[in-house]
Amino acid sequence: MKVKVFRKEHFNAAHRLHNPEWSDEKNQRVFGKCNNAHYHGHNYELIVEVKGEIQPETGYVMDMKVLSDIIKENVLNKFDHKNLNLDTLEFANLNPTAENIAVIIWQLLREKIDHELDLKIKLYETERNFVEYPAD
Amino acid sequence: MKVKVFRKEHFNAAHRLHNPEWSDEKNQRVFGKCNNAHYHGHNYELIVEVKGEIQPETGYVMDMKVLSDIIKENVLNKFDHKNLNLDTLEFANLNPTAENIAVIIWQLLREKIDHELDLKIKLYETERNFVEYPAD
Amino acid sequence: MKVKVFRKEHFNAAHRLHNPEWSDEKNQRVFGKCNNAHYHGHNYELIVEVKGEIQPETGYVMDMKVLSDIIKENVLNKFDHKNLNLDTLEFANLNPTAENIAVIIWQLLREKIDHELDLKIKLYETERNFVEYPAD
Amino acid sequence: MKVKVFRKEHFNAAHRLHNPEWSDEKNQRVFGKCNNAHYHGHNYELIVEVKGEIQPETGYVMDMKVLSDIIKENVLNKFDHKNLNLDTLEFANLNPTAENIAVIIWQLLREKIDHELDLKIKLYETERNFVEYPAD
Amino acid sequence: MKVKVFRKEHFNAAHRLHNPEWSDEKNQRVFGKCNNAHYHGHNYELIVEVKGEIQPETGYVMDMKVLSDIIKENVLNKFDHKNLNLDTLEFANLNPTAENIAVIIWQLLREKIDHELDLKIKLYETERNFVEYPAD
Amino acid sequence: MKVKVFRKEHFNAAHRLHNPEWSDEKNQRVFGKCNNAHYHGHNYELIVEVKGEIQPETGYVMDMKVLSDIIKENVLNKFDHKNLNLDTLEFANLNPTAENIAVIIWQLLREKIDHELDLKIKLYETERNFVEYPAD
């Protein structure tokens, strides 16, 4: 009797899309406005999905308060009100696209959550652009 | 050519999380504010997902008006504007967590919907805490 | 150069609409499902509006962090995860309709916010039923 | 390392549900208000999901700007501010239910998107009625 | 102690913007896609605002169930799943812009609601285009 | 017969709250996380409100397409995907709080919109923090 439980959190961050191996002209052509040298930013909406059995004693798959605390400690404290390119180790050498941010968040949370529970990340960069990892 | 169709409904209910086999102190420690003796409540948003073939004559997997009526008769009439712990048989001896409510709603609807159609329940307890059953 | 600033918070509570001077039959006729003896509940969305001049040194009308803390201390701590009828002094003898809850919240916050700032409360009982006080 | 990326677009259209092989009376009984002879309409919200590997050079599965342009050219230009029954070839002989619209949009986009990428369509006819194709 | 109460309803309709005193060319130039001869449509979100004193016996400005019934009988039954240009008397000779629809809805409801209560209409044609009447 | 019409747009930008006349320590104490030296960012939701008479020939207060174009040309082109502190003249010497951004947007639009029409700006920095100017 497996159930998925979801917790929604958010963080606000600046970022810039840029490939340092490309010319400025190619970066501009590929990433357009997202390549702006002085950064732009987003309100990221983050949905963390955890799948597992209901625990009979609690009726929970996982305590949402515990999950929320794990997300705050391992993701929001790192990324909220930060410049992803300049203020984080994770994106010092990795382009902070929504896809890559979702993968990094999954890696940060995977080691903090019981391995009998499956984990998935949905990340909204805007209301109209969002991603999910892993894909199945 | 299978398609999923979704119908969103809502109900408002009071509940309390509590395990009668535990001490008051342990209930308080595990369930926190959700253990409040006099109950609290939620606007539950319910999304019912039905999967099946498109019927060529109608272009429908299932008439959404029929699905809405089934949900009203079998779920909303039981739970809307009720105290889940005190006013329902389903949660007289089952902790009304979002996980358990989703499983019960699935059981209530499963017998009312054509067995060639797959059924899934998504239940929002708040905008930030929600669940899905079955998880497959 | 007056500006309105808004802070959105939420709380979850149980309540029951009931007039103790009426018969059970009249209470049932007037308040319908909302009169359920064992209570029901809502996710209340609360928007607090403060109107005043921009402070030149900060660019703020009021620090939203400070406003959020005032709301938490004076409103959420009283009402969140509570039964409004049974667990609060404010509604021991006052029917907890959305209208009355909004007036009470305004009174609780009015004394905590600088009197040069105007104050208004918007309260969503559901996505489809909401109120605003004062109406001016 | 497969990721799903999603792009949300919208279009406004009129339609009527009708089976020309049925009597007016049967059409009215089956489709109810949706059979209104002079049409009614919707704000359709369209979510296009594309699944694939992250490209290391860009950090993208697919450039959302390119995906948005493909959707505009192949779907919105056909359906936005149109009468689906009268103004489109696709629904000249196909009942424009949400299910059928989703299948048609999938077919229109499938040939425009790299075949190494999986494609899925979610279509909201209203906030409360929506569909997804293909179903798995 | 005046309070505003709000009720949200919705209806789906087809319409076309057109001035019969203008040439087809001018209609096309002014109204663009909204002039499409075969109509297009919208999910209209309607918020009805009523302002008045709280009634001490009920704690209500006005029973939201009564307000909802008045809206259904006088507005939704006329406009829901209809073609505003062809199926209604109100827009037989009046261009069904959001502005005009809001004014008509105000007129339809004004005579049905106690004249000691102020009335205002907010109408969303889309999430991004909406109107309010009267303006103060 | 005055009506308010509203147009919603959005832009994504980086910013930092900072008063150059204060010490780093005081900036940190007053602005907290929003003072982060390398900036953070937001998805700003902008609602522009225009109030005036309905034009009998069109049924419009103002063509929403024209309003949208004015906003794009005068606001979005300046601020979208920009660093408000570094990339704009308007905030080179003005702290980019939500309050100040709303005032600046009002000034930018005021000269572009017919002076018989009243203008108001609502700006969402996040879903939970937003402002309106002018206040009455």
Can you walk me through this structure?
- The structure is a homohexamer of 136-residue chains.
- Chain A is 30% helix and 31% strand.
- In chain A, a hairpin with a 4-residue loop joins strand 4 and strand 5 (129-133).
- Chain A is built from four helices and five strands; from the N terminus they run βαβαβααββ.
- Chain A has one domain (2-133): Tetrahydropterin Synthase, Chain A (2-Layer Sandwich), CATH 3.30.479.10.
- With 136 residues, the first copy, chain A, is of the alpha+beta class.
- Chain A is elongated and about 60 Å long.
- Chain C binds chain E through residues 17, 19, 21, 30-32, 94-100, 102-103, 127-136, and chain E through 1-9, 51, 54, 57-61, 63-65.
